[in-house]
Every structure is written in C-alpha cells, then in structure tokens.
Amino acid sequence: MLLIGMFDSPFVRRVAISMKLLDIKFEHANWSVGKDFDKIRQYNPLGRVPTLVLDDGEALIESAAILDYLDEIAGEGRCLLPRVGAARRQSLRIMAIASGAAEKGVSLVYEKAFRPPEKRHQPWVDRCSSQVHGAFVELERLCAQRRGEWLIGNSLTQADITLTCVSVFLRDTMQLNESNAPYASLWAHVQRCELLAVFNETYVPFFVPSN
Questions:
Q1: pLDDT per residue over 105-157, tens digit each?
Q2: Is residue 207 one of the residues assigned to a domain?
Q3: pTM (2 decimals)?
Q4: Are 49 and 40 in contact (CB under 8 A)?
Q5: Are residues 69 and 101 both part of a single domain?
Q6: What is the tens place of the pLDDT at every residue in 153-179?
Q7: Residue 5 to residues 21, 83, 137, 160, 163, Cα–Cα distance (Å)
Q8: Which CATH number is 112's domain given?
Q9: Of 42, 55, 81, 203, which is most buried, counting CB atoms within 10 Å of its CB?
Q10: Closest among 3, 21, 157 to 66, alpha carbons compared
C-alpha cells in the first residue's frame, strides 16, 4: 500500500500511526498538497491527503474512510475503533470534536498563509480560535475524567490517536502551550501518547508560512 501525504497533517499522521499499530506495511509518499498537487491528483481528484493507494490500485481518499478500511482488514479484536455500542459512540464523539478543531486550525493556517495581514478578517480568526479552545475545554474534561487512563476502555484506541495527532498539530500551528492553553489533563494525555515509539517516529513539526 502507498500512503500519500506529509506527517505534519494530523489526518495523515493518524492513518500512519494506525497502520503501524496494526502491523500493516506501507510505503510513504511524502508529498505536499502544495508543490506535489498534480502528483496527488493522479490518485485523488481533489488533490487532498491522506490518500491510501491499495495494492490493486484502488485509492481511498478520506482519513475516516481509510481508518474504517484498516479496522476492517485488522478484524475483530485488533481494530482501533470499538465496533458497536456506547464505546463506539463515545470514541466517534471524541474524534469528531478533535477533527473539528483541526479543521478550524487549518482555516487559521490558510488565513495566515494566503491572505496579506491587511485583508485578514479578524472576526473570522477570533471565531475559529474560540472553536478550537471550545473543543480543548471539552477534551480536557474528558481526559481529566480518565485520570491517566486511556480514553476508551483499557487500551489505546483511535480516540487517543486522533486526539493526540490533532492536539500536537494545533500546538504547533497556534503556538499553544501551558501558558496560553492551560489544559493540564489534555497535555498530560498527549505526552503519554507521544512517548510511544509509534507516535515519536511519525512526528513532523508543522511549518506555518508567514507573509
């Protein structure tokens, strides 16, 4: 399989971590949606990442769909997202909150990268920032409830992976830290995951362009 996309994307990174945890071998095309846009469009008409090209040439083009496929081939007992019941709903809720925050973070990156300062719409910037912090407040509450345990059940799940990848992305892009984002339980949970080798070997800091 071929995983297309750079690991500074939380969506690409969560796929890579999942594949490593599930012992699914893959090649990595470290392609940028900027300079490698045309190459990516050979597999994904949107030119977006992650894109996972299967051995038979089929291309999966959205991280949630890719993760669902990975769990399908991993099988019951190894999948990273609970298959049914309250645990599945809770996992999906955490993932939705984290992914939504990441999307707002991407909007802020684009605002800074592509608009000159005099044309940035500050109310929109403020709204996106407030949505990110709103998500962090809820994720902090959930992490505090677990008190050092995994978010769902007794083992690492996709909820932990997604929360960590998104939090690290937002930490890098928005320069969040304990001084301006004092979410102690959230950062402690992120650090617990980031100490695992599979997280460490897929970490690439996000570079925010300036103009």
A1: 999 988 888 888 888 889 999 999 999 999 999 999 999 999 889 999 999 99
A2: no
A3: 0.94
A4: yes
A5: no
A6: 999 999 999 999 999 999 999 888 777
A7: 18, 27, 29, 21, 19
A8: 1.20.1050.10
A9: 81
A10: 3
